[in-house]
Amino acid sequence: MNAQISDKTVGRLSLYRRLLSNLLREKEEEFVFSHRLARAAGVTAAQVRRDMMVIGYNGSPKKGYAIGDLIESIGYFLDAPGVQTVALVGVGNLGRAILTYFAGRRPNLKIVAVFDNDPNKAGTVISGCRCYAMQDMPEVFKEKKVNTAIVTVPASQAQSVADTLVAAGVRGLLNFAPVNLRVPVSVYVEDMDITTSLEKAAFFARCRMAS
Amino acid sequence: MNAQISDKTVGRLSLYRRLLSNLLREKEEEFVFSHRLARAAGVTAAQVRRDMMVIGYNGSPKKGYAIGDLIESIGYFLDAPGVQTVALVGVGNLGRAILTYFAGRRPNLKIVAVFDNDPNKAGTVISGCRCYAMQDMPEVFKEKKVNTAIVTVPASQAQSVADTLVAAGVRGLLNFAPVNLRVPVSVYVEDMDITTSLEKAAFFARCRMAS
DNA sequence: GTAACGCTGTGATTTATATCACAATGCACT
DNA sequence: AGTGCATTGTGATATAAATCACAGCGTTAC
Fold first, then answer.
1. Interface of A with B in 79-118 (CB under 8 A)
2. Residue pair B152/B89 in contact by the 8 Å Cβ criterion
3. A80 interaction partners in chain B (CB closer than 8 Å)
4. What does each C-alpha distance from B211 to A80, B46, B204, B207, B208 come to in angstroms?
5. CA–C1' nearest nucleotide, residue B36
6. Residue A131's closest CA among A149, A111, A113?
7. Which domains, and CATH codes, for chain B?
8. 3-class SS at A169?
9. Is the pLDDT of residue A13 over 80?
């Protein structure tokens, strides 16, 4: 795919798209200026314009960006043609919460299967998703063409789950386990470490108290 | 507090600490080399040494870093003296999952109160935390000296909740709502946007498939 | 006692990321 | 049609973050 597109840029594009959708729905506006979108996203106007450059979308001076077109352009850039399927591994509290959160949210990014090593859960349906046993992974992934997975298992199991996922053909991981997953360079890992994030918030809260 | 300590560094320190604790518990080792810790954390050895500089911890050549001492030094740097209290706002699926996740995990960073605007929940106890009504915030925060909060409310309510929190004296926020919170510069916000993260993972998964 | 090794600590450098600043553009108003 | 003006697109620049590379030192081996 594209030459060298940064992590950060992709994240902002995803955010822009959601903000734009809200704008379109709530305000019924048709155009938006870079500084307006920037303020909503918490970045600078120049940053927004640079990101537009990356996806090759052109606004018009004096009018700004056509919201509908822009959403479509971002989608064209970010999304797979058709529906992209995702699996979730580890149906604990967090896994279930995330499953519920995404149920029917983004139409073209769909959680189609969940896995757990508790044999009692296999065969059941959780938030509209069929739960499978771990060993069914290769088969299910092949059938449903899954290439992205969410990992919500305990830290101790995360690496072996990641290995299984990679072996089954997954190339993108969203990892909630507080460990650094060792994967081939051909696999992308996005870490969400809640403990670290909370400790950061707590640390800087104290810093700000002092000043 | 300290001059100019970066976000990223604080995050890594938090991670190092957890890795070191595991090392101490599992392997019974006493010293660790920068390259070993680096590999576990998924960063370079130079990065680890630079981070040690920041907290002013000195290892010894040939032996490395004394794990016990280092954990203590990181704690001395990151943690409040005594217990730091945290509140959680929004007891939906995600809020409950996070509450359970943190219950009794880090001894000196404790969720001591939860808030929800559902009047039926006020007065109940969820995962060992008393649930209060929104309007009790100033009082509870003052009594329990809360300066950090986790926001797990729907996007539409996030800004007004943030305003209330800031007014009640909170200086650090861990925000799960997919919106950019507008807060004074004296308040630190750490965003965890699950949707964006999943879209990033999905995007790069496709990129890697192509190559 | 001393020589050799491998690690730490850190200045210098590179790379990534964000901002600045301004020419080019096209709409609005006359 | 022409002028003014606020906005875009983007090269140049600044800032932040990570890496390199090597001097200095403690440990170990002999």
1. 80, 84, 86, 92-94, 96-98, 100-102, 105-106, 109
2. yes
3. 202, 206
4. 15, 30, 11, 7, 5
5. C7
6. A113
7. 7-78 (1.10.10.10), 84-196 (3.40.50.720)
8. coil
9. yes
Minimal CA separation from B14 to chain A, in Å: 6
pLDDT reported for residue B10: 98
Cβ–Cβ gap B206/A1 under 8 Å? yes
- Among chain B residues, CA nearest to A26: B156
Amino acid at the residue B107: P
Question: Among B194, B201, B190, B195, which residue's Cα sits nearest to residue B8?
Answer: B190
B-chain residues near A2 (CB < 8 A): 207
SS3 A172: strand
Nearest alpha carbon to residue A177 among B120, B142, B19, B204: B19
Distance CA B20, CA B57 (A): 15
Which residue in this structure is represented by tokens 């100033």? B138
State how far the alpha carbon of B8 is from the alpha carbons of B2, B72, B80, B150, in Å.
15, 20, 19, 20
A51-107: per-residue pLDDT in tens? 999 999 999 999 999 999 999 999 999 999 999 999 999 999 999 999 999 987 778
Nearest CA in chain A to B93: A97
Residue-wise pLDDT tens for chain B (211 aa)? 556 799 999 999 999 999 999 999 887 789 999 999 999 999 999 999 999 999 999 999 989 999 999 999 999 999 999 999 999 999 999 999 999 999 877 788 999 999 999 999 999 999 999 999 999 999 999 999 999 999 999 999 999 999 999 999 999 999 999 999 999 999 999 999 999 999 999 999 998 887 6
The reply to whether B52 has its C-beta less than 7 Å from any atom of strand C is yes
Q: Which of A9, A146, A204 has the most B C-beta neighbours within 10 Å, making it the best mutation to test the interface with B?
A: A204
A210 pLDDT above the threshold of 70: yes
pLDDT for res B3:
61
Which residue of B97, B205, B211 is in closest CB contact with A172?
Answer: B205
State the Cα–Cα distance between residues B131 and B151, nearest whole angstrom. Answer: 14
Residue numbers 58-117 of A with CB closer than 7 A to any atom of strand C: 60-63
Nearest to B98 among A96, A186, A194 (CB): A194
Find the residue in B nearest to A12 (Cα): B196
The pLDDT of residue A203 is above 90: yes
Residue type at position B24: L
